From TrEMBL:
Record-given protein name: Exopolyphosphatase
Ppx/GppA phosphatase C-terminal domain: residues covered: 311-485
Cofactor: Mg(2+)
UniProt KW keywords: Cell membrane, Hydrolase, Membrane
Quaternary context: Homodimer.
Primary location: membrane
Places the protein is found: Cell membrane
Domain of life according to the entry: Bacteria
Family named by the database record: Belongs to the GppA/Ppx family.
An example Gene Ontology molecular-function term: exopolyphosphatase activity
The EC number(s) this enzyme carries: 3.6.1.11
Length: 502
């Protein structure tokens, strides 16, 4: 009996100015599954002297980290490993010494990539882990440089890298951890000056969504969540308030924020100063965070088949196939749900746009539980979506998907809804109502298109306007809708069915 072929594993290492990152993934069918992540704070940029030479202490820290990473990569073929070094090794005159010594530790080549290439790979990493919602502006503040990219789908259209980062700006403006208004203003002004030559190009190009990636913006997001902003969205107002709170601390060691770890404290003020300058220079109102970054871009670059689609498309498609989902029916429900929800939220903000995307995935996968059994299949679907490995979806997103499909039919036992950290329960109620209506309206599993159906929502009271005479000629569907009304009433909701009298 022949042994099954082991899935190919690939790894990417990002030698950053503040931290080194390694990601290992397994290629399974059309999916790329992250199986391990490793991060070490190295502070490489702090070892650059005024002559742009790396000191021996920084080199030693970097090599020790690579030695740890090498233990995980034993047995990996060179074509399955890609290592990219960024700002600090771009700047270091003695980078060759670091690379030569690294050769004896890691038997893989290290690429020192230019800033625009770093920006392109960051864009690729974010594009593969973020749903496509039109033109995207992606900002990545590293230890030594900041990348700014605008693009659509998987194609960056405008990409720059600027020499300003949380480590380099800490050493320049917040010497020995000292924080005051003068230092903060100087750092912000310097960052704005760096952006002056490109700001008008970015504003002219435009974007629908601003997305932040990597450690600095992640740390800011976590601090905002710790302050009670559970949606994790970074807004201009919240950023300004954060700047004012930081100034009360006087010293980096005194920064006492929920969600801010001790390693990040020394460079936090500089990171906030840079991001606030980016917001001001480009006129950004709000920004969301993406887990995708340079290392994910390196992974996807290695395997060409992954270059042209959102990772969540592949995840959902693979899952639908695995559980023998009736794709025609799933698409009918998905299209109806999208059409109804677009009437309820004609101009959704960032949070609701993301939830609308999750509604679409939930509709596509609402019947995965049928593979277990028909009775209670909505519960089976919820279990599979909550506990399966779903690349591209975080735990909160999987919880939302599971909740939507759990409440797609039968009684609305809303007390069974799980706790959420990013979203609120009230955010999910309109999605649950929408999916229930889409499922009910397509209950006959017919290829005949549905007529135009209008929905008007006023909090818990929804009105569905159906073509005149349609209920009489679709009596089974009408009965299902009457049952749906009863379910809504028990939950304290109201569903009104009215004929369209022209």
């Amino acid at each position: 009996m022949t042994e099954p072929v082991r899935p190919r594993e690939v790894a990417a290492i990002d030698i950053g100015s503040n931290s080194f990152h390694m990601v290992v993934a397994r290629i399974v069918g059309q999916s790329l599954q992250i199986i391990s992540r490793h991060k070490q704070r190295v502070h490489l940029a702090s070892g650059l002297d005024k002559h742009h030479n790396l000191d021996q202490a920084a080199i030693k820290r970097g090599l020790e980290c690579l030695a740890m990473f090498a233990e995980r990569l034993q047995g990996f073929e060179p074509e399955n490993v890609r290592i990219a070094a960024t700002y600090t090794l771009r700047q270091a005159n003695n980078a060759h010494i670091f690379l030569k010594r690294a050769e004896s530790i890691l038997p893989y080549s290290i690429e020192i990539i230019p800033g625009t290439e770093e920006a392109r790979l960051i864009y690729l990493g974010v594009a593969h882990t973020q749903p496509d919602n039109g033109q995207k502006l992606i900002i990545d503040i590293g230890g030594g440089s900041t990348e700014l990219v605008i693009g659509e789908d998987f194609t960056p259209q405008l990409a720059y890298s600027k020499n300003m980062g949380c480590v380099s700006y800490t050493e320049r403006f917040f010497v020995k951890g000292k924080i005051n208004g003068k230092n903060m203003a100087a750092a912000q002004l310097a960052a704005q000056q760096k952006l002056e030559s490109i700001a008008s190009k970015y504003i002219r190009e435009g974007w629908q969504t601003a997305i932040g990636s990597s450690g600095t913006i992640k740390a800011i997001r976590e601090v905002l969540i710790g302050q009670g902003h559970s949606d994790g969205v970074i807004t201009a107002e919240r950023l300004q308030q954060l700047c004012e709170t930081i100034l009360k601390a006087k010293h980096s060691e005194d920064l006492d924020f929920v969600g801010l770890n001790d390693d990040r404290k020394p460079v936090f003020a500089a990171g906030v100063a840079i991001l606030s300058a980016v917001f001001k220079s480009l006129g950004i109102n709000e920004m969301v965070f993406s887990d995708g970054a340079l290392r994910e871009g390196l992974l996807y670059e290695m395997e060409e088949r992954f270059r042209h689609s959102d990772i969540r498309v592949r995840t959902a498609t693979a899952m639908a196939k695995q559980y023998n989902v009736d794709i025609a029916q799933a698409n009918r429900v998905k299209e109806t749900a999208e059409q109804l929800y677009s009437q309820i939220e004609p101009q959704p903000g960032l949070t609701k746009t993301e939830l609308a995307t999750l509604l679409s995935w939930g509709a596509l996968l609402h019947e995965v539980g049928l593979s277990i059994s028909y009775p209670g299949f909505h519960r089976h679907s919820a279990y599979l979506l909550r506990h399966s490995t779903m690349p591209g979806f975080n735990l909160e997103q999987q919880t939302v998907l599971a909740t939507l499909v759990r409440f797609q039919r039968k009684s609305l036992k809303l007390e069974e809804m799980p706790e959420l950290s990013i979203y609120k329960r009230k955010h999910l109620y309109p999605l649950i109502r929408t999916l229930r209506l889409a499922v009910a309206l397509n209950g006959q599993r017919s290829d005949d298109p549905l007529p135009a159906i209008a929905v008007d929502a006023e909090k818990e009271k929804w009105q569905l306007t159906l073509p005149e005479g349609w209920e009489e000629s679709n009596r089974l569907l009408a009965a299902d809708l009457r049952q749906e009304q009863a379910y809504w009433r028990k939950a304290g909701w109201e569903l009104e069915l009215t004929p369209d009298n022209g």
